[in-house]
Design goal:
With 329 residues, the protein is mainly alpha-helical. The chain contains 13 helices and two strands, in the order H-H-H-H-H-H-H-H-H-H-H-H-E-E-H. The radius of gyration is 19 Å and the shape is globular.
Length: 329
């Protein structure tokens, strides 16, 4: 039991890997050329009922990448006992030299996971840069190619859902590192189209199709918009009053859903709703600021920590760095 407690603490980024407190040796992580995955939903109508065994198989396939992100996040956050920044730079250099993750994913689950972890890699690079240890030009070139590939994956789908909203974060998280006309165009278009998808009633048509997870996927959509907004503001792009009103409307509806999900149940066709778990609240809590209404304080679960390795480590530290990066008004 003691060993499991220690592993859990390492995952949270709260203790060093070695009892001595000394920095760990730089780990080795073989580059992954192509991502795949397993569809973990048991229902094909709404894609809302998770099959635990399929999800376990999916997570096992991703382990080489999730292990890398765990180590990179700890280093980028300066966690106690983590290797120094040179280790992270070396790992990124090796994956860049190998052209990791640039092969077309084996299936749609691979497409999704490539996008998830690509934005995490960008955020790791952002944190390293903020610590005075910027990634090398070859690493930035690889991250750009990866960002372009992931945004193209969702631009060509022609569907404005939470995955498309998250593709704006793929662009925004690279643009905080370096300018790029193609990614800036995608970010702006995805930002505008995602906000436009929020109806006058505060709901989103594509996410109302998700059965018992309709509320969950509205919350995912909101989290993507919040993170995009923070990256844009860090680059000096203000949120307009109309954009802020749309964000506030969606945030208010999701907050109400935590207290009373009947609106979302009705939108889903009178299907009882799954309430988003506390890990889902990490981004809104760390980055949402004034968007979080009284309903969040009364009804939403409180995150036990903000460490999310697939998004580059601790989200509260990401927000702090973004706030310090933003130009003075």
């Amino acid at each position: 039991m003691r060993g499991w407690i220690r592993v859990a603490a390492i995952l949270l980024g709260v203790v060093p890997r070695h009892a001595s407190g000394q920095a760990a040796a730089c780990p080795a992580h073989a580059p992954v050329a192509q991502l795949g995955g397993v569809s973990w939903y048991a229902d094909r109508e709404h894609f809302s009922i998770v099959d635990p065994e399929r999800r376990r198989q999916h997570d096992a396939m991703l382990k080489p990448l999730t292990d890398l992100m765990l180590d990179l996040g700890r280093i980028a956050d300066g966690a106690a006992g983590a290797p120094g920044p040179a280790c992270a730079l070396g790992l990124l250099r090796g994956w860049a030299a190998a052209g990791a993750l640039l092969q077309t994913p084996a299936n749609f689950n691979g497409v999704v996971e490539r996008a998830v972890h690509a934005r995490g890699l960008n955020i790791v690079a952002f944190k390293l840069n903020a610590r005075g240890t910027p990634p090398e030009a070859a690493t930035l070139a690889w991250l750009r190619r990866l960002s372009l590939a992931t945004t193209a994956d969702f631009a060509r789908r022609g569907r404005v859902d939470n995955l498309y909203a998250w593709s704006a974060v793929n662009a925004a998280s690279f643009l905080i590192l370096a300018p790029d006309a193609q990614l800036a165009q995608h970010e702006q278009r995805a930002w505008e189209r995602s906000l436009s998808a929020i109806r006058e009633d505060g709901l989103i048509a594509t996410e109302a199709e998700r059965g018992q997870r309709t509320l969950v996927y509205h919350q995912y959509f909101l989290a993507a918009l919040i993170m995009t907004q923070r990256f844009r503001e860090a680059r000096g792009l203000p949120t307009t009053p109309a954009e802020r009103a749309k964000l506030a409307l969606l945030a208010r509806r999701v907050g109400e859903g935590f207290c009373d999900p009947r609106r979302f149940a009705a939108a889903a066709g009178n299907i009882a709703q799954e309430i988003p778990a506390q890990p889902n609240q990490r981004i809104p809590t760390a980055m949402g600021g004034s968007l979080l209404t009284e309903e969040y304080r009364r009804c939403a679960p409180v995150p036990t920590h903000f460490n999310q390795p697939q998004l580059g480590g601790r989200l509260d530290l990401t927000q702090s760095l973004l706030a310090r990066t933003a130009p003075a008004r």
